[in-house]
Each structure stands twice: as C-alpha cells, then as structure tokens.
Amino acid sequence: MTRTRLVQFGVLALIALVAAPTALAKDKEPNFVQSFLADVELGLGQFTDELIIFPLIAKEKRERLDIQPNTWAKDLAYSEPELPKKRFNVAVANNETKPLLLLGGTLLGGGRRDRLVTRDVLVAPGGRVEIRTIVTGGPSETRKEAVPFRLGSALAPPYIRERAEFNPTNTLVPSFVSHFLDFRNKGDKRKSLAAINASTQLNQLCIPCHQSLASFPTASGGRVVGLVTAVRGRIRSIEAFGDNRLFKAWFEPLLKSHTFAAAAINAKAKSLRIPEPGKGDPKKALEEVRVKAQRLLDMLAKARYRDDDAPLGSMGESLLLRTSNGTRGVAKGLDGKFVHLAVFPYDPFEHALFSRRIKPPNEPDDGYGEDGVAELQRRGTGGGRLTEYERRLLRRLGGRPAGGVGGLPRRR
To answer: Residues 196-209: pLDDT tens digits?
Structure first.
C-alpha cells in the first residue's frame, strides 16, 4: 500500500471514529421523562383571580401505577433518628403494601421542629428510609418535648420548593415566612409556615379559586396527569405524574400551595404598588401564558439530564434536568416508568422579594437601636438596597432614607 493510500485510509478511519459517537448520540434512547413528555399535550387553560392553570393531558389513558401516594397512606411511621446523618433528618417507615411516594415540598409537623421534605423519595413496602428535611420555623419554634408527626394539608409554595430541591438551607423557609407574618391570625405568635398556612385572611382569598377548579383533575376522561401554573403572568411550576390517580391524590395540596402563595404574593405586590399583569384581560393573559408553557414543554424534551443521588435504601431512579434558559427540575421513575416531575423556572421577581429575611413592625425584638438606624441610613445613602419594611421602619425611627424603594432614587 502506497504512502498516499495509507494517509487516505488513516483519514477515513479517523472520520469514522469521530462520527461514531455522534451517530450513537442521535440514536440514544429517550429517558423516562422524555418518553412521558412525548405522550402529553397542553389542554385549555383556566383563569382565576389568583392563578392561570393549564392541564397536561395524556394522549391515551395511562396505565395505573402500583404506587401509594403518602397523601392517602395511613400505615406510615415518621421518627427523629437518634444519630441522623443530617441534623434535622426524618426516618420514614412504610408499612403499606405498595411503594410509597413522598413528594419534595411535603410539610411535616411534629417532632421537636416542624420540617419540610426537600426531595421526592420512593420507600419500598416494609422499608425504612432516612430523608433530608429542613426546618420551617426559626429556633424559637423548637419544642421542649417532641410531639407526634402529622402531614400538612398543602405542599410548600413553589419558590420554597425550588430552592429546597437545589440548595436546602435551614434559613430558607424562615426568610420567606418573615415577609408574611402580618397575615397571621390575631394572637398567633408563631414565626413559621404553619402560622401562615393557618391564616384565615389568605385562605379566604383562595376559596373562589378552589371552587372554580374543583373538577380539574377529572376532566378529559381521566387523562389529566399534570398542570402548568402561572402567578401574575409568570410560570411558577410544571407538575406531572405517572397516572391520573397519583395526580388526583396530590391535586389539592398542590392547588393550595399555589393559590395560597399567589394570594400572599398578590397582597405583598399590592402593598408595593406593583401592577398585576393581565389584570382585566383574561384572554390575553391566558394566551401569553399558553405560549410560554408550550415553549417550556418543548425545551424540556431537549433539556440536559443527569442522574441524581437518592437516599440510601430508597427505590427508583432520580434525574436532574436543566434547560438552556436556566430552568431546573427533578424527576422520579421506577423500573423505567415515569412517576413524577417537578419543574421550577427561575423567577427573579420572587427572588428579589423573598431572598432576605425581614421582621414585621409589631415585633418587639427587631434589634434596631441607634446603631441599627445608622446602619439603615448608611446602606440607603451608600447605594445599598433597603426593603420596603426597612424604609418604613427607618421613617418611624426618625431616619430618612436617601432613595426610593430598595435604595433607588424616588420618582418625581
């Protein structure tokens, strides 16, 4: 073989080696999330005072999964391990006859501290798994003696769930809750999510939404398996389940978490005089959200997926996903079958509002003395950002912030 022929042969072999992985990548089997997404479509949206909501409808009725949602399970046991791997971990013993699905965002009252489950977990029949949780109130909410565990009636708001999934810190929920302590019922001194969830004022704002969406899970002949929700024109989450039965089990806790958070955020936004997107034009708002929702669903099919660690002793497969625009999500499967998907687009509006803890005006221990006033004035004049509450507090204490809300110049 001549030298020229050898060179030609080498070049062809190199091209074949480079092209082979590309060909294999194109032929790669879709994962259980991508297969599920190919089987669902976006239904007609509904507009309420608090939410815009679109159903995810399976093209054909999906086979019922042999999984027990913990919202319906009765034979469970929660406990605080004597030597937990993480300080506030909780052990879950499943005495049911089916695998148990415990969703990330589940609120657990009880023990010595109320807690929030950070990630989805599947517990085998007769199995026991230690799960990661974070607290839902500050140190003052610690009990002297442990009390029996109980499940909350709602999942945590999407803002908290998104951050708990990817950055589970014990300051997360108290920081969020601090913005809504003024909505607590009269005489309720708790500084926890439980106190906000018990708010009569906010619950009353949610009642019309729940009434108008009562038939949502049973529409389309039982083929509804998920929903896309938007608050104030911004998509807050995509939630999907492996079958209609699982979706129905979780629909009310999901709806409460969204409408409750929406009512609280709307009240907060009104106090800051932020206009409501889509107000007075439901058709336009619905169409805008529908376009965004379909675009996001299309992006999920092309998202980057990678395996995620699961708690020791748990069942199933876990995936993390990320789209090209930074949207993140988590998914759970069992034996290659789709079980649950939660997707949370990044929301700079909520992050700007709730990423910092505040204290309400009626709290006697807010710790602002003369030094505190000087610090607020320094931050306001030095280009720092003050919260709306800090501005009000500064005015009450006799100081004058240099700028408008958040340290920005006042409008003239």
So the answer is: 888 888 888 788 88
133-161: pLDDT as tens digits: 999 998 889 999 999 999 988 999 999 99
| Mean pLDDT (whole number) for 244-248 | 96
Residue corresponding to tokens 């997107």: 277
**73 touches 96 (CB < 8 A):** yes
pLDDT exceeds cutoff 80 at 122: yes
**Domain boundaries defined on the chain:** 32-353, 366-407
Q: Which residues contact residue 18 at a Cβ distance below 8 angstroms, ignoring those fewer than 6 apart? A: none
CA distance 409 to 252: 43
Q: What is the mean pLDDT of residues 106-124?
A: 95
